[in-house]
Write a structure and sequence with these properties.
There is one protein chain. The chain is an alpha/beta fold. The strands form three sheets. It has a five-stranded parallel β-sheet with strand order 2-1-3-4-5, sandwiched between helices. It has a four-stranded antiparallel β-sheet with strand order 6-7-8-9, covered by helices on one side. A three-stranded antiparallel β-sheet has the order 10-12-11. α2 runs parallel beside α3. It is elongated and about 55 Å long. Calcium ion (CA) binds next to loops.
Length: about 220
């Protein structure tokens, strides 16, 4: 599950990002409302953790604009403004969940896991496409009945593509993911990973969409 963290407090953001990494989540961080709206459109995160107190825009306006996307992204609102009013307004405007600062990291992780469970279709942790079965809780992949080892980045890339089966993922979105997984993204890093993945997967599973990106067909 890909998280977009919107938080202008740099030290809090850094702490949250490393805590999320430790919990096995992958998070991109931006520090303004404008960046958040851009990242929501280009990266297509699965969930946005949104601080309401931002320097350039009111967090509630950011929330309102996120609701106007073609496919709205779930939003968990963070606020230091510890008032019931903000909570009600936030939920009214389409926030899916709410945490008041200061909060416990374990609490945030628990809430995010609820979203993750909702995301995984039919409450199963296995995604099957053709002869490829990916188990997101065991982090294992079975290809044509045999277990195949994938290094972490390749596994994450495959998981991302399989979770979005039927959709085209742009190069930019995939490169941003690599970056969020702590990769130094050189100009051809994505091609190299895709090349390695293809060697281990059935022939035409990952398709190149010329000039745009890559896709895995829905079964
Ligand atoms: Ca803030």
């Amino acid at each position: 599950m890909q998280i977009l963290l919107v938080e202008d407090d740099a030290s809090l953001a850094a702490g949250l990002k490393s805590a999320l990494d430790r919990e096995g989540f992958s998070a991109n961080h931006v520090s303004s409302g404008r960046e958040a709206l851009t990242a929501a459109k280009t990266d297509r995160p699965d969930i946005i953790v949104l601080d309401l107190g931002l320097p350039d825009m009111d967090g509630l306006d950011v929330l309102a604009q996120l609701q106007k996307l073609d496919e709205p992204i779930p939003v968990l609102v963070l606020t230091a403004r510890d008032s019931l009013d903000d909570k009600i307004i936030g939920l009214d405007r389409g926030a899916d969940d709410y945490l008041a600062k200061p909060f416990d990291m374990q609490e945030l992780a628990a809430r995010l896991r609820v979203f993750e469970r909702r995301l995984s279709t039919a409450n199963t942790s296995t995604i099957s496409i053709g002869d490829v079965e990916l188990d997101t809780s065991a982090h294992s992949v079975i290809v044509s009945g045999a277990a195949v080892e994938f290094p972490r980045r390749e596994y994450m890339l495959l998981k991302t593509l399989m979770e979005s089966a039927g959709k085209v993922l742009t190069r930019e979105a995939l490169e941003n993911r690599l970056y969020s997984w702590g990769e130094e993204v050189s100009s051809n890093a994505l091609e190299v990973h895709i090349h390695h993945l293809r060697k281990k997967l059935p022939g035409n599973m990952i398709k190149t969409v010329r000039g745009i990106g890559y896709t895995v067909a829905r079964p």
